[in-house]
């Protein structure tokens, strides 16, 4: 339905980046390969638009658009369920503590918690030190100060220009390909 296209695209654009950001922390589970996993997530997110080329080719070979989009929706539901039920409620720490578990019982295992509690009780007397009152208190910045900072404004401007360049490329890709192939659809 054509009237659902604009809201659906808006939801995809906004929701997709949120799932990307929440799932990037999975890279923390892989130690020295952390940057590789984060790069793979980002690459999968950026190349997902190429999936529509595959859907177009499948449609031309006889697969209905409804079946293709229902399959994509089922894959998205699996991804959403995995995000909500397997990721921890807060974050995956880096570096990982010993015996850290991932999944339904996220956090440290109970055996590790009892060991940590036993160690903290034995070392509590040695670690108690009085707080110094002369320590400088770091002033926290307000949300408004962060929004009005030069760093945020320049970053917002840079991101906006990059998005406009990206949309310009997407918008002009089809006419450019038609011009290069001289209108031959098989090419």
From TrEMBL:
This protein's UniProt keywords: Membrane, Transmembrane, Transmembrane helix
Protein localization: Membrane
Lineage of producing organism: Eukaryota, Metazoa, Chordata, Craniata, Vertebrata
Keyword Aminoacyl-tRNA synthetase: no
Coiled-coil intervals, chain numbering: none
PANTHER family xref list: EQUILIBRATIVE NUCLEOBASE TRANSPORTER 1, SOLUTE CARRIER FAMILY 43 MEMBER 3-RELATED
Protein name as annotated: Solute carrier family 43 member 3
Segments crossing the lipid bilayer: 6-24, 36-55, 67-87
Species annotation: Ilyodon furcidens (goldbreast splitfin)
Topology within the bilayer: Multi-pass membrane protein
Domain of life the protein comes from: Eukaryota
């Amino acid at each position: 339905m054509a009237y659902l296209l604009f809201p659906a695209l808006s939801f995809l654009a906004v929701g997709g980046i949120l799932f990307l950001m929440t799932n990037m922390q999975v890279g923390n589970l892989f130690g020295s390969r952390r940057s590789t996993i984060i790069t793979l997530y980002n690459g999968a997110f950026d190349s997902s638009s190429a999936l529509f080329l595959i859907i177009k080719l499948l449609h031309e070979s006889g697969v209905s658009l409804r079946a293709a989009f229902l399959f994509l929706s089922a894959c998205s539901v699996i991804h959403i369920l995995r995000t909500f039920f397997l990721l921890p409620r807060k974050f995956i720490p880096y570096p990982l503590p010993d015996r850290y578990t991932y999944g339904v019982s996220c956090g440290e295992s109970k055996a590790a918690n009892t060991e940590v509690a036993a160690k903290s009780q034995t070392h509590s007397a040695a670690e108690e030190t009085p707080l110094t009152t002369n320590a400088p208190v770091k002033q926290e910045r307000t949300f408004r100060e962060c929004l009005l900072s030069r760093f945020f404004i320049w970053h917002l401007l840079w991101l906006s220009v990059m998005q406009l360049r990206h949309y310009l490329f997407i918008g002009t890709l089809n006419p450019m390909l038609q011009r290069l192939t001289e209108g031959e659809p098989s090419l």
